């Protein structure tokens, strides 16, 4: 190994020699501690950059105990309780919640901060008609039989969500030194003063630390546990734990109207990202983002004055620190680090503007749930790397690293060997590319949904890249784009309502009906529909996945059905006959060797007329369709889970929709869909990589020439075009052995 650096190694006490050896082997130039571990004394002797986790809003339990009213808060909803008889109804708000994590707050004006709602009518019940029996029971005096009721209650957060998860996962209850950490709210003036003074003192006491890794700042994403300590509700984008009485009062002063508990509870959906965002919630996001920016900026200033860098972990208490929000660059963060769970989450980190460098924390985390006799740490490392590499090639992370307990990882020497290889390949991507991103297609792809830029690379996620049956059909679009050679921009409906930006060559709208990602009510906007329809007719391109533009109105379910050439059967047009003929030979499906996998699929989709080219069908429903519309084109896909096959199909669909399919062969691509290539014009090199754990042979096409490579499991190859100019497309020019 000739180069070192760009790698951060987790370390812990009692492993000095192992740490030194691994730093040499992995070429690590930075070390860090993980949650629950301390930095060993050897850290200051390693001549490496030292990171240390820091928690502004938890970790000082002495302070937390001395200020019992300073807890952060949730807005939560009780179970839906039916009234089966006339008269009184008592609701236990804590039924189903974990009492060690949350506690109802009755030290507030409950008539303002609590709310009882008749979920049958949607009516808010007057506080004069209900009362508290005790801290966790509400009595409704005159319940109507057959109606269902809930209580929106204000709850103190008694145990930090992430520390609780780590505590339970790692059996920290067996360690008498461990405690259950209580979070505290930055909006309390005395607590804010304490946070500032505590950070100043901590910086003085830790001269060995070069980088303060804030994990993160003040408000945790919504993560609530049930009565037995298992996850009950998780929303990685949730703001329901950012509330306080003072914040709501301040919001009313700034925005001129008062929020209610229901504005946070949102019928029990808690404004999760699949919900089309209401104006009140968008205002709260903006309000919180501005406040958190202001406070985080002060902590970063303290960090810089102490001669240290400030790094933000994109996780835990990240709410309000929106990395694609309008105020984020004002904070002055030096770096952002985040967990890499997929190509999409990798791009979510690497594309963040306004920081000096980005870092990805790769999987697996060195925790006992993976590092045990039945675990597969090498398999997880390979899957993590193969997913991430596609994104790193397109938008490189500046650094990589791992987290957890090093003492666990070293018990698996084959795993350490694999990590050594991954670290070296990561560095080579930077060295060989000379720090320049590879060439993209000559047009930009716009992803259109209700959120736009603020949720860049964050669509269709629930809990940070975890798989869900209902979303993998659509998340595959984002996962594919993360590693394809396109500039990608995330646009809201407001961004295109009065005109599609000039640089956009293809618009993609993907999602299920009724969600923020498909659009729901947005498609009832005549101006929006008219603008996109005319844009496509004038030569634009539109790709719809699943139930795009879905909103039942004026005789259509898909409001852009005329553009797409297909419509969804909602049992209202069963009387209308449908005729289909599948076109088996088309540019879009040229690399589709087997039946198209559309995941859960749209279902019951039919072509409007013979002008729609149906390219794939299943059980009588259209899966893929291509349609000319005026001077433009549209493509319909019933779903697109991520796979090499589907990524290539989307690649081709984008070129066809943009009316550029004739240029595809001369734009860099591999004929083997399980391999991909990136072209670096300034370095005059190409990087060919195998996205599987099996050996692959591939022919690389570009500039009218061809190269042949044989790539071993997860292998890759750099080809210098100055030294190996390739041959005419009909030739065969092997350039590598199995690697």
Automatic annotation (TrEMBL):
Domain Lacto-N-biose phosphorylase C-terminal intervals: 668-719
Domain Lacto-N-biose phosphorylase-like N-terminal TIM barrel intervals: 5-438
Transmembrane domains' residue ranges: none
Superkingdom, natural source: Bacteria
Matching InterPro entries: Class_I_gatase-like (IPR029062), Glyco_hydro_b (IPR013780), Ig-like_fold (IPR013783), Lact_bio_phlase-like_N (IPR035080), Lacto-N-biose_phosphorylase (IPR012711), LBP_C (IPR035356), LBP_M (IPR035363)
A GO BP entry: carbohydrate metabolic process
SUPFAM superfamilies found in the cross-reference section: Class I glutamine amidotransferase-like
GO molecular function list: 1,4-alpha-oligoglucan phosphorylase activity
Residues of the Lacto-N-biose phosphorylase central domain: 445-661
Coiled-coil annotated residue ranges, if any: none
Protein name as annotated: 1,3-beta-galactosyl-N-acetylhexosamine phosphorylase
């Amino acid at each position: 190994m000739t180069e070192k650096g760009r790698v951060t190694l987790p370390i812990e006490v009692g492993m000095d020699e192992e740490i030194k050896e691994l730093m040499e082997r992995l070429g690590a130039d930075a070390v860090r501690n993980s949650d629950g571990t301390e930095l060993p004394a050897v850290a200051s002797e390693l001549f490496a950059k030292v990171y240390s986790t820091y928690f502004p809003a938890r970790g000082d339990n002495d302070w937390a105990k001395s200020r019992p009213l300073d807890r952060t808060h949730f807005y939560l909803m009780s179970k839906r309780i039916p009234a089966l008889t006339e008269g009184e109804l008592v609701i236990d708000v804590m039924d189903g919640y974990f009492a060690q994590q949350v506690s109802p707050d009755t030290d507030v004006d409950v008539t303002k901060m609590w709310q009882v709602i008749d979920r049958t009518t949607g009516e808010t019940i007057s506080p004069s008609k209900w009362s508290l029996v005790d801290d966790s029971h509400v009595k409704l005096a005159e319940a109507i039989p057959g109606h269902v009721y809930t209580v929106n209650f204000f709850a103190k957060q008694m145990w930090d969500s992430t520390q609780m998860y780590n505590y339970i996962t790692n059996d920290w209850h067996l360690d008498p030194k461990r405690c259950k950490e209580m979070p505290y709210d930055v909006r309390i003036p005395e607590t804010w003063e304490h946070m500032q003074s505590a950070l100043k003192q901590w910086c003085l006491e830790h001269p060995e630390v070069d980088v303060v890794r804030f994990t993160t700042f003040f408000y945790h994403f919504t993560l609530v546990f049930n009565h037995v300590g298992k996850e009950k509700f998780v929303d990685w984008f949730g703001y329901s734990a950012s509330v306080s009485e003072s914040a709501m009062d301040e919001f009313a002063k700034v925005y001129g109207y008062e929020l209610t508990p229901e504005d946070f509870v949102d019928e029990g959906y808690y404004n999760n990202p699949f919900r089309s965002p209401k104006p009140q919630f968008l205002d709260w996001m903006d309000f919180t983002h501005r406040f958190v920016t202001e406070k985080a900026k002060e902590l970063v200033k303290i960090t810089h004055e102490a001669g240290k860098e400030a790094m933000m972990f994109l996780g835990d208490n990240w709410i309000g620190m929106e990395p694609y929000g309008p105020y984020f660059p004002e904070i002055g963060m030096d770096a952002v680090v985040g967990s890499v769970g997929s190509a999409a989450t990798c791009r979510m980190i690497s594309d963040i503007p306004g920081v000096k460098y980005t870092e990805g924390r790769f999987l697996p985390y060195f925790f006992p749930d993976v590092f045990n006799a039945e675990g597969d740490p090498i398999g997880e490392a390979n899957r993590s790397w193969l997913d991430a590499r596609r994104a790193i090639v397109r938008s490189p992370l500046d650094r990589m690293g791992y987290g957890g307990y090093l003492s666990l990882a070293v018990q698996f020497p084959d795993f350490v060997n694999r990590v050594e290889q991954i670290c070296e390949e990561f560095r080579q991507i930077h060295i060989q590319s000379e720090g320049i991103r590879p060439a993209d297609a000559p047009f930009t792809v716009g992803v259109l949904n209700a959120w736009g830029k603020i949720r860049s690379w964050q669509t269709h996620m629930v809990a940070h890249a975890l798989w869900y049956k209902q979303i993998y059909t659509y998340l595959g679009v984002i996962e594919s784009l993360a590693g394809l050679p396109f500039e990608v921009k995330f646009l809201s409906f407001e961004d295109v309502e009065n005109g599609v930006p000039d640089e956009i060559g293809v618009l993609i709208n993907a999602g299920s009906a009724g969600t923020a990602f498909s659009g729901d009510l947005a498609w009832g906007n005549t101006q929006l529909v008219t603008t996109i329809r005319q844009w496509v007719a004038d030569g634009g391109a539109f790709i719809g996945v699943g139930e795009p533009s879905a909103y039942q109105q004026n005789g259509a379910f898909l409001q852009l059905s005329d553009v797409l050439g297909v419509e969804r059967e909602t049992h209202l047009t069963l009387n209308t006959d449908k005729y289909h003929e599948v076109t088996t030979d088309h540019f879009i499906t040229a690399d589709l060797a087997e039946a198209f996998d559309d995941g859960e699929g749209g279902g019951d989709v039919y072509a409007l007329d013979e002008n729609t080219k149906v390219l794939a069908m299943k059980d009588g429903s259209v899966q893929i369709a291509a349609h000319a519309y005026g001077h433009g084109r549209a493509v319909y896909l019933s779903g697109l889970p991520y796979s090499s096959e589907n990524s290539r199909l989307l690649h081709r669909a984008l070129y066809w929709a943009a009316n550029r399919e004739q240029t595809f062969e001369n734009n860099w691509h591999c004929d083997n869909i399980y391999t991909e290539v990136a072209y670096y014009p300034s370095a005059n090199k190409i990087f060919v990589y195998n996205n599987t754990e099996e050996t692959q042979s591939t022919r690389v096409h570009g500039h009218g020439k061809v190269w042949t490579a044989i790539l071993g499991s997860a292998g890759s190859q750099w080809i210098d075009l100055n030294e190996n100019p390739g041959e005419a497309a009909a030739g065969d020019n092997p350039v590598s052995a199995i690697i």
